[in-house]
Amino acid sequence: MGYISWLSINKAYRGLGLGRDLLIYAIKAAFSNKVVKVGLVVHATNERVLQLYRSEGFQKIQSLVCYNRRLGL
Does a structural domain hold residue 40? Predict the structure, then answer.
């Protein structure tokens, strides 16, 4: 299984289809390397990118809750 991590577009270039282009490029690269499944993680509140991933055939399989803690040094 392949994993797409941190696909991001600079705000100045959003809305030009670059995110979709990068996503499709990553999928094709995985497929050409005999990867048969690709996964990714996305913020549940990022509706714009959720719509992109759904339009490219991705399906929600799980919801995660993440925690962090600031370390006082």
Answer: yes
- pLDDT tens, residue by residue, 14-70: 999 999 999 999 999 999 999 999 999 998 899 999 999 999 999 999 888 889 999
Q: What domain range is 34 assigned to?
A: 2-55
Residue with tokens 């979709």, as numbered in its chain: 20
* Per-residue tokens: 52: 């992109």
* Rounded CA separation 71/32 (Å): 43
CA gap 8, 44 in Å, rounded: 15
Is 28 within a domain?
yes
Closest alpha carbon to 56 in 68, 69, 39? 39
